[in-house]
TrEMBL record:
Pfam family, one: HTH_3
SMART domains linked to this entry: HTH_XRE
Ranges annotated as spanning the membrane: none
Signal peptide bounds: none
Name this polypeptide is given: HTH cro/C1-type domain-containing protein
HTH cro/C1-type domain sequence ranges: 4-58
The organism of origin for this protein: Algibacter aquimarinus
Length: 65
């Protein structure tokens, strides 16, 4: 699970802008933001760099006990 949508909202950035920066389609970025699909590690690092955040800020920690 990721927090891409939350981070975009916090920064006031639109998904379409992120898609352009990544060279991905809006539909792909929207799938990431809605957690229907998870980005590859490479894309996750690129997203973090573009948004100027640490990768861990884009992830939701799982509490499997």
């Amino acid at each position: 699970m990721n927090r891409i949508k939350e981070v975009l909202d916090e920064k006031g950035i639109k998904q379409i802008w992120l898609a352009e920066q990544l060279g991905k389609s809006y539909n792909m970025v929207n799938s990431y933001a809605q957690n229907r699909r998870q980005p590859s590690l490479e894309d996750l690092y690129r997203i973090a760099e573009i948004l100027n955040v640490q990768v861990k800020e884009l992830l939701i920690e799982r509490n499997d006990q």
